[in-house]
Amino acid sequence: MSEMTRVLLGAASGESPTDPVIIGIIIVVGILALVFGLILLKFARLWLQAYFSRADIKLSELIGMWLRKVDPRAIVLSKITAVQAGIELTTKDLESHYLAGGRVPNVVRALIAANRANIDLTLKTATAIDLAGRDILDAVQTSVNPKVIDCPDPKKGKETVDAVAQDGIQLKAKARVTVRANIQRLVGGATEETIIARVGEGIVTTIGSAMTYKSVLENPDKISKAVLGKGLDAGTAFEILSIDIADVDVGNNVGAQLQAAQAEADMRRAKAEAEKRRAMAVAREQEMRALVVENESKVPLAIAEAFKQGNLGIMDYYRLKNIGADTQMRESIAKPKKSE
Q: What CATH architecture applies to the domain 147-257?
């Protein structure tokens, strides 16, 4: 008979064991039994819920999830939801997606919604979209129920797309784009911002190519048809169903403003040229006056040299002085009198 059996028999007959080793073994066994019981109590409810829902999740799998720091409740509830909806998913697939950082409940709900709407969506595609950071459930809902995107986006602070026709008149347009999510292009496809930018560019190009703004106001659908025909949804995660011009308003006469600004610039340039010529004339006049003053300063020297050389007599000199005095007198008489 083993030692453990003898201990148990002794305990049953009222004998108290005295061996410390045996007492330690009993304590360890009791602790292990208590821990196992607590684990059973922790996962018993989830296991029973999965068992009666035919989710096929074992108790050992629940304990393994707990040890791997996986939320067992999220996995169990997600698998139960999938099983009740008729979608076959394995516990390993759900657990691996959870460990990869994915949103398991969101993926399961998206698979159910796609199945009900007859959309071809596999678990691999759904998990890839979810791990890419996209909301797979919202994508499926958008694929079933298309949504409307305002162009431009009012949240960006701009209310209209402004463009100028060839006659110089500015037009302000608002568009509404109806899109449907393309599940197959959701991974790597451009977002709504790209759709809004491309539609805005198409509106500006279409208005800019119009000969007159009146033709755009008469047929606003020309804008939507021209923009829709360019295939703006290429490379995006959406499929454009329609582009509707919600409103077109007449803005400023940009052509007239540009012409006025050009005329103002030409006038300023002409004024600058005239001021330049005036300054050059003033400088030339001052230069000539300086030459006159310089030459006049040489006259006394020339007279003195003429006296020395005998080319000028005293009578000639007095005659020259008289002529200068007469000239000065005539100039003073010719000047108007100043009013007191």
A: 2-Layer Sandwich (3.30)
Rounded to 5°, angle at Cα 196 from 242 and 243:
15
Dihedrals phi, psi of 241, to nearest 5 degrees: -90, -40
- Tell me the C-alpha to C-alpha distance, in Å, between residue 240 and each of 76, 87, 235, 236: 39, 31, 12, 10
Would you kindly state where each structural domain of the chain is located, as residue ranges?
19-144, 147-257, 298-333
Q: At a CB cut-off of 8 Å and minimum separation 6, what does 258 contact?
A: 168
Global pTM reads 0.59
User: How far is 134 from 129, CA to CA, in rounded Å?
Assistant: 6
Reduced 3-state DSSP string for 262-309: HHHHHHHHHHHHHHHHHHHHHHHHHHHHHHHHHHHHCHHHHHHHHHHH
CA 227 to chain centre: 22
pLDDT 10s digits, 71-118: 888 888 888 888 888 888 888 888 889 888 889 899 999 988 888 888
| CA–CA distance, 177 with 165 (Å, rounded to integer) | 23
Q: What is the largest CA-CA distance in the chain?
A: 174
User: In 3D, which of 191, 162, 192 has the Cα closest to residue 177?
Assistant: 192
